[in-house]
Amino acid sequence: MTEARGSAGPNGETHARNAPGAPCWVSLMVHGLAATEEFYGSLFGWEFQPGPQQLGPYVRALLDGHEVAGIGQLPPDRHLPVAWTPYLASEDVDLTAETVRLCGGTVGVGPLDAGDAGRLVIGSDPAGAVFGVWQAAAHLGTSIAGVPGTPAWHELLTFETTSVAKFYETVFGYEEEPVVSADFDYVTLHIAGRPVAGLHGVGNALPRDRGPHWMTYFEAADTDEAVALVVDLGGHVLKPPHDSAHGRVATVADPEGAWFSLIHVER
């Protein structure tokens, strides 16, 4: 992982339209919406507002009145992995969807309208990692950053970075900056010289039941305290808190099994 995105203003607010390819939203589809709201509300202090109704039972998480993330309810007959999904900004989601297909990816949902909020696609890269694409209209995406309870970074865990980096660069126009190391396969994706996401090739260390997947890092005021609260609220620890070059970080799962990371970044 590298530094968190640098688009926050002096008060942690971000209101500008996101550049194409920039992570602009995160969404979670679950089986128990009310219980999930209770978990994340207690963990991050989120409050919830319903809608857009075109997405079915769906709420937007708010922090101090600013939109942070979305949580929706899966239909009872859909036995999909419960996972946080990052959405990458696009100025033309239909064209992006076609490019995803041409580059060996898959489009699973959409393109479809979410009312007047915007237009979306859910797809997967050639290795199978799921991501969203968002063409903003009324809803620009996450409107606050750099404070506890907000997304701080997005990282793809995959088999190897070379081919998937080429996919994301072609579809979204990223510049890449590989880590030159014989035993560490990592690429940072940049937009206009700014780091926006990371790709980490971990080979056979990928969990067999999960495969390649995106990981969202949420900012925590205190990583150790946040991890203890996750456990108290019915979640569990996948990787205990530890110091890294970028802050104190841990990986956890919510009660339905959605993985995410917590990080405290010293500023």
TrEMBL record:
Alphabetized InterPro entries for the sequence? Anthracycline_SecMetBiosynth (IPR052164), Glyas_Bleomycin-R_OHBP_Dase (IPR029068), Glyoxalase_6 (IPR041581), VOC_core (IPR037523)
Domain VOC positions: 22-136, 150-265
Q: Which domain of life is it from?
A: Bacteria
Coiled-coil annotated residue ranges, if any: none
Q: Specify the signal sequence span.
A: none
Checking PANTHER family in the record gives:
CONSERVED PROTEIN, GLYOXALASE-RELATED
**Entry protein name:** VOC family protein
Say which species the protein is native to: Streptomyces plumbiresistens
Q: Print the organism lineage.
A: Bacteria, Bacillati, Actinomycetota, Actinomycetes, Kitasatosporales
